Hints:
By secondary structure, this protein is mostly helical. It has helices spanning 23-33, 40-43, 54-60, 68-78; strands at 45-46, 49-50.
Amino acid sequence: MWKPRKIGRLIGRIHSVSPKLGEVYFLRILLNKVKGPKSFEEIRTVNGEEFPTFRDACYALVLLDDDKEYVDAIKEASH
Length: 79
């Protein structure tokens, strides 16, 4: 549940999260990068577009690398 802080505007602590937890991991990444969100919807919003998942928002902000480059390079090298 989202609760605004009564004093200050900073998050006190963000615990480490394993990438195996999926959306929770992507939420943690966004909490470290997105400034001043007031809801989960605002965290998933990038350039005015709200994404359905935290993972999609991370890719939109270019916080995660796409494996397509590496797959293309391996295919090209094999030919």
